[in-house]
Amino acid sequence: MKTYDVIRRAGRSLKQAKIRTLLTSLAIGVGAFTITLSLAAGEGGRQYTEKLVAANADTQSLIVTPKAQQGPGQAQDAPREYGAGPEQAADLSYLSQTDIDKIQAISGVEKVTPTYSISAQYVTREGQKKYQAAIDTKADRANLDIVAGSVPHDTLLDNQVIIPEDYLGILGFKQPGDAIGKTITLHFMQDETYTIAAVDKKPENALIYRPSIRLSINESKRLYDLSSKGTPEYGQFFMVNVTVATSVDAQAVQDQIKGKGYDVLSARDIQATLFQFIDIVQWGTAGFGALAILASIFGIINTQYISVLERTQQIGLMKALGMRSRDVAALFRYEAAWIGFLGGAIGTGLAFTAGMILNPIIAEALGLGNGTNLLVFQPLVVTGLIASLILIAIIAGYFPARKAAKLDPIEALRTE
Amino acid sequence: MIEVKNVSKTYGKKHNAFVALKNINFTIPDGASVAIVGKSGSGKSTLMHAMSGLDRPEQGEILVDGKDILKLKQKAVDKFRANSIGFIFQSFFVQPNESCYDNVGLPLEIANISATKRRTRIETALAAVELSDKIKSKAKNLSGGQKQRLAIARAIVNEPRILFADEPTGNLDSETGDLIIKLLFNYNKQKSTTLVIVTHDDDLAAQCDIRIYVKDGHIIKMEGVK
Q1: ipTM of this model?
Q2: B190 and chain A: CB distance < 8 Å anywhere?
Q3: How far apart are CA B97 and CA A97, in angstroms?
Q4: What is the pLDDT of residues A306-337, one digit of tens each?
Q5: Over 70: is that where the pLDDT of A70 sits?
Q6: pLDDT above 50: residue A90
Q7: B120 Cβ contact partners less than 8 Å away, ≥ 6 residues apart
Q8: Where are the alpha helices (DSSP H) in chain B?
Q9: Whether residue A37 has pLDDT greater than 80
Q10: How far does Cα A398 stand from its chain's mean position?
Q11: Which of A105, A61, A59 is nearest to A260 (CA)?
Q12: pLDDT tens, A208-249?
């Protein structure tokens, strides 16, 4: 018998038991739906994370901190007995200029910028009250969303600041544009006066954003030195920011810095951690889908057994007319395959529809910004899923198909 | 030519053994019409199953055109049935939810004949049983006589060398039954197809060239054999 004819007959047999076929398929469909959605959510999550990391962090930028302190040869898990040795101090370690020079010497490192922690007592402007303000340094390639003014070459002059949109009100401006070119006063040890070069707001994809007044790197250094002079913190930094030249592989530089005994964190590390989390969630939910499919296997076996019983006469006739056992088994396997295909198509189809409906709602609810889809369907993955469901259905249909193939036509055609 | 030589068939084992056929011998020439007559349980159906390759008696030979079908492998027996044998059953065994076209097409599909070649042959077979107008109808919408005619169309579509009919009129009223018998004999005469009818109806048997009477697995009488 020709394969095409077998497939056609299999399809016709299923059509004659529409509801039963549909119900059996739906059981697989539930699993396919769950798996498709969880894979789509995983992919969407990964794409979104990539977008976030790209938007928030420069992949050519590394954060270097001193290596977490451990006494010589004291890598240990158990607490030590009191008095048995030197006390474990909460070692707060810093990076010094020597460290910065060492890092700077590594080839591929373009620039090393320490992170200056500075705080102002207040910010004010002529005729306005005094307000507490957060102070940050405007890093070289920081991702800022400028709404007014401009920062030529991405570099602030030492007497310039960028203020956040949120500060406009307290400084007595109505429009962002009003602030440009005006002066504000920050009080550290003494009053310092700056010109507002630009106004920024929270970027759409920002992972972390705090509204703060941003100073140039030089100015930050000057103020930090000023405030820390005479204290142990002078010339010491919790962490430094390393800018890797664009033509150089950041990973290689990261490894080199690590080799010199520092801890290094890169945007990729953060991304990898997030990916791991997404993967766990994705495969967790996909696992539930797999369970549903496992349950549906028994549904297929049951349906097909009933089908064989119901069609005993038909099978007997086909065998009497010379149909080979192999073809009879194939007929039932193709029926199972059809069920698997139908279930897969229904499940993924519904998942796709759900995604179409849910994507805008999710983006809206989580404030992800326009055009961000958290459910991303990959045609290849969906096709692969349907193909494996067909395979699973065929395997499930093995025993019923074998029963049909082994039927004795004389017995099957005995009517009395 | 069909030669049945020393055929015996036993069902069950040891204490429960039941002899369905015992030492059967006869010869049927090509194109003959044969009635195998007997009551139910006489072994007449078993004999038909053996002659058509459905059943395999453990003893004897069944030579169809000189070839022993009992010595063939399963695959070859299936092929023999698909190509050389037509079956007509008492209960028709037409597929109620399929069209007449698909019902008649089944043996051709099994015999691996391409869809394009099938069409003309199906149409010819349906015309021979005067069901051309029902080609697209579902078999369940046919009357009993029409169903049996459909079954005949299915049996002859492959132009078999031997046609087996197992109580073909058993489920029909006498008028419709006569029509079916007429169809079978016509086909037998026109195409010189060997026709083997299993029946308990003496009137029907009387119309056949050869009559083989079976009782308790034995042949008790043969008529019309030269």
Answers
A1: 0.94
A2: no
A3: 89
A4: 999 999 999 999 999 999 999 999 999 999 99
A5: no
A6: no
A7: none
A8: 44-51, 74-84, 100-110, 115-128, 144-156, 174-191, 202-206
A9: yes
A10: 40
A11: A105
A12: 778 889 998 888 888 888 888 888 778 888 888 888 888 888
Q: Is B41 left (phi over 0), alpha (psi -120 to 50) or beta?
A: left
- What are residue B68's DSSP bridge partners? B63
Q: Which of B40, B109, B147 to mutate to test the interface with A (most CBs of A within 10 A)?
A: B109
Distance CA A372, CA A366 (A): 10
> Does A405 reach chain B within 8 Å, measured CB to CB?
no
Reduced to 3 states (helix: H, G, I; strand: E, B; else coil), residue B11 is strand
* Strand order, beta sheet including B18-28: B18-28, B2-11, B59-64, B67-68
> A86 at the B interface (CB within 8 A)?
no
Chosen from A3, A5, A331 to mutate, greatest number of chain B CBs within 10 A: A5
B54/A9 CB distance under 8 A: no
Tokens of A368: 């992800």
Query: What tokens appear for A228 in the block?
Result: 């820390």
pTM of the model: 0.75
Rounded Cα gap, residues A318 and A330, in angstroms:
13
Indicate the length of chain B as a whole number: 226
Predicted confidence (pLDDT) per residue in B79-116, tens digit: 999 999 999 999 999 999 999 999 999 999 999 999 99
Give the alpha-carbon dihedral of B136, B139, B141, B142, to 10 degrees: 100
CB contacts, 8 Å: B75 with chain A: 324
- SS3 (DSSP) at A167: helix
Q: Tell me phi and psi for residue A174, to 5 degrees.
A: -95, -45
Pairing of strands A145-149, A240-244: unpaired
Considering only CA atoms, which of A258, A208, A207, A249 is closest in space to residue A60?
A: A249
A132 alpha-carbon distance from chain centroid: 36
Quick check: B78 and A317 CB within 8 A?
A: no
What is the token pair recorded at A412? 């099957």
Query: Encoding tokens for residue A78?
Result: 């158990």
Amino acid code (one letter) for B158 = N
Question: Residue B145 is which amino acid?
Answer: G
Q: How far apart are the first and last CA of chain B?
A: 14
Residue A146 in 3-state DSSP?
strand
Over chain A, what is the mean pLDDT? 86
Residue type present at position A190: Q
Q: What is the pLDDT of residues A2-24, one digit of tens each?
A: 899 999 999 989 988 899 999 99
- Residue of B44, B46, B78, B97 to mutate, interface with A, max A Cβ within 10 Å: B78
Please spell the DSSP secondary structure of A321-365, one letter per residue.
TT--HHHHHHHHHHHHHHHHHHHHHHHHHHHHHHHHHHHHHHHHH
Q: How big is the A-B interface in CB pairs under 8 Å?
A: 56
- Is B85 in contact with A313 (Cβ distance < 8 A)? no
E strand segments, A72-190:
109-114, 122-124, 135-137, 145-149, 160-164, 183-187
- For residue A91 the two structure tokens come to 């070692």
